[in-house]
Amino acid sequence: MDLAFLDTTTKAEAGVELEIKHPKTGKGIGFFLTIKGSDSKTYAKALKEIMKKVGPDTTEEEIREKLIVACTVGWRGEEVVDGKPQACPVMLDGKEIKFSESALAEMIKRMPTIRDQANAFMTGRANFLPEASGS
Known about the structure:
Number of domains: 1
Strand order of the largest sheet: 1-2-3-4
Radius of gyration: 16 Å
């Protein structure tokens, strides 16, 4: 028996795309984050560094936010035009925002639903399993 179908570390290190969903409707909003998983070396290294700096007032929420920032490798926007998905800029308050750690950190502080979805995705091992074979 080949147990490779349980390998979460390979895709966790490469990163997998997550589409953020509207918290009320559950529908994708066309905003995608590419996130490395909790079984990646990146996550382990970031957690180790974060834990060195934890103070008595540090919250679990702050630790999760820092892990999300450390493990997110990019974002993209997408909208459907004439029934076809097309790339579009990511906007906030009418201004285009480019991906950066600081922009992401600010975004997840302001929009906890993004933080919560990213955290659940990043720590959900099923998201990082190899594609199922046709067996």
